[in-house]
Design goal:
Oligomer: single chain
Radius of gyration: 19 Å
Order of helices and strands: EEEEHEEEHEHEHHHHHEHEH
Shape: globular
CATH topology of the largest domain: Rossmann fold
CATH architecture of the largest domain: 3-Layer(aba) Sandwich
Largest sheet: 9 strands, mixed
Strand order of the largest sheet: 1-2-3-5-4-8-9-10-11
Structural class: alpha/beta
Helix content: 25-40%
Number of strands: 11
CATH superfamily of the largest domain: Alpha/Beta hydrolase fold, catalytic domain
Amino acid sequence: MARIFFLTCKRHMHIELVQIKTSDGLLLPGIFSAPKKTSAVAIYLHGNGSSSVFYKEDYHALFRNALARRGIALLQFNNRGAHYIKQLRVRKQGSEELKRYGMAYEKIKDCVYDIDAAVSFLRKRGYKTFYLTGLSTGANKICVYHYYKPRNAISKNVLLGGGDDAGIYYHLLQKKKFWALLAKAKRRVSAGTGEDIMSELLPAEIFSYQGFYDIANPDGDYNVFPFYEVLKNTALSKKPLFRHFQSIKKPTLVVYGEHDEYAWGDVPRIVALLKKRKPLFEYKIISGADHACSEHQQELSSVIARWLAL
């Protein structure tokens, strides 16, 4: 939780590089920005793959400025799923150990440690109102967090482009290969060799057997938005669909780009599926936008900031 440096920028806002310490011993780097006087703060959760909060300054500047105009601070940090493979130092009881993290090894349920650490960090700075905003896998993590920790400090959530990874890999690999690889991954995890990298998916995808089993298992926690199963009428899961999403009891804004490339070509229908399950949530489709609203960041930032400030 050490402060690395401090600088002053426009709009009476300060920005810091910070470190967030989780209860299981990780130090996660982040960027904290805030207007001078506020008690409200948004926590941003990035997606998976090569994602990080440090390489898209144009978007981050738009987002932090939009929030600052509404009197909301912002904490963006690299969670344990940042990058494909990343070695992190685990510090516990006076000792250090290097362990492998990143998307290739991530278990989505561990997001509870990361989000709790972010809230704890901000509480120590005097913040009292907490919002969660998540892009892609970040949206999935918000749902998983509420599922496993329904009693929490979050006031509002923003789910941007929540993804259907089990459906994507089922479609990509096709039925026979998908189930064969999933079964092999499960065996490798049970045998204690789950951290080995899967050669079967290289070079297009970089996964350990552990990471692949977590992200592709239809009955796992990653399968928050099982759109493929519903749209294609294909039974993959045995557990109740959308159970993580339906567990959220706090005010929530759900946002999708009109042309989200991971939405099976039917954004209105997937939004309708969610609205049927949580009709009191707010829903917004950004016209002309892709999965990350890449060319519509100004509009997206304004939509989120305005809704959080209501």
